[in-house]
Specification:
Blueprint (H helix, E strand, L loop, with lengths): L2 H64 L5 H23 L5 H71 L3 E9 L14 E8 L8 E10 L5 E2 L6 E4 L2 E4 L2 E7 L4 E8 L7 E9 L2 E10 L2
Antiparallel strand pairs: 1-2, 2-8, 3-4, 3-7, 3-9, 5-6, 9-10
């Protein structure tokens, strides 16, 4: 074998070795590239999943805030952003993880929506704080109003009690009541058949607080059967928003001093045997009630 032939063979062997090395290196790099691509795809899938979770959490946050807002305008804005999040989430779910450009855009959209939500949250917190302040103010105003109303009621009650005290103090009092049965000659008699008059004796006690002047005394004689003895159905006097039938009346002048007087009932009917009641009224007040008996 010539020297030249040996050189050619050596060159061929060297070339084969070089080609084999190159092929081996190429196969190694190809495998390495596939591994890197697989790892990159896995990372992109993980990033997409993370992004989906963030969108889902954001949608749930919008739901949570929407339930606690009393402002209709703000609720509408939140609903609009909520719908936008739902659309972006749906788009993200159908977007391939390898579409890096769209994934990046959706990630940017998420950041924008989140910043908008932060603004709404601040508004919600501000409204909530204002509502709490208003509730506290209303509670305080209601408390003060109730306190003032209670004080006004107390004052009104005290005023009424004072008025009633003054009224009671100014009321006349009838004392020393007695009833005598008289015959037609004006003499006392106990015989039922001879009774012609009923004489009512009484005294008006001293009272310097009552109004002086001409007054009218009314007497209601109530029979044992509960009926009022009267000479006329027109004998009426006012009492507590109504009118009562009276038996006898008499005008008198009162100056605050003790006053004794008498009233007479002319018997023109058959007197019932039993217990009677004598009620006296002056100035719209009942000033005395007494009982007496007619024996048969």
């Amino acid at each position: 074998m010539s020297k030249q032939t040996k050189v050619i063979i050596a060159s061929i062997v060297l070339l084969v070795v070089i080609l084999a090395g190159a092929l081996t290196w190429s196969l190694y790099k190809t495998h390495e590239t596939k591994a890197e691509m697989s790892e990159m795809v896995e990372m992109m899938n993980f990033e997409k999943e993370q992004l989906e979770e963030e969108y889902t959490d954001l949608a749930m946050q919008f739901d949570g805030y929407g339930m606690n807002i009393g402002n209709d305008s703000l609720v509408q804005l939140l609903d609009k952003e909520k719908q936008k999040v739902a659309q972006l989430l749906e788009e993200l779910r159908v977007t391939k993880a390898t579409n890096a450009r769209r994934i990046a855009a959706l990630k940017k959209e998420l950041a924008t929506v989140r910043s908008v939500m932060i603004q709404y949250v601040h508004q919600i917190d501000s409204l909530d704080r204002m509502n709490k302040e208003l509730i506290a103010e209303n509670t305080e105003v209601r408390r003060k109003y109730e306190t003032a109303s209670h004080k006004a009621e107390q004052l009104q009650q005290e005023k009424e009690e004072l008025h009633q005290t003054v009224v009671r103090a100014s009321m006349l009092e009838l004392t020393d009541f007695s009833m005598q049965t008289l015959n037609d000659r004006g003499r006392k008699t106990r015989r039922y058949s001879q009774i012609a008059k009923l004489q009512f004796n009484y005294t008006l006690a001293k009272n310097i607080t009552t109004t002086s002047g001409i007054k009218t005394l009314y007497l209601r004689i109530i029979r044992p059967d509960g009926e009022v003895m009267s000479k006329s159905d027109q004998n009426l006097f006012p009492f507590e928003n109504t009118e009562l039938l009276y038996s006898l009346s008499k005008q008198f002048e009162y100056a605050g001093e003790e006053l004794s007087d008498v009233l007479y009932w002319n018997v023109q009917e058959i007197l019932q045997v039993g217990d009677y009641t004598a009620d006296f009224f002056v100035d719209g007040h009942q000033i005395g009630r007494f009982s007496f008996r007619i024996e048969g």
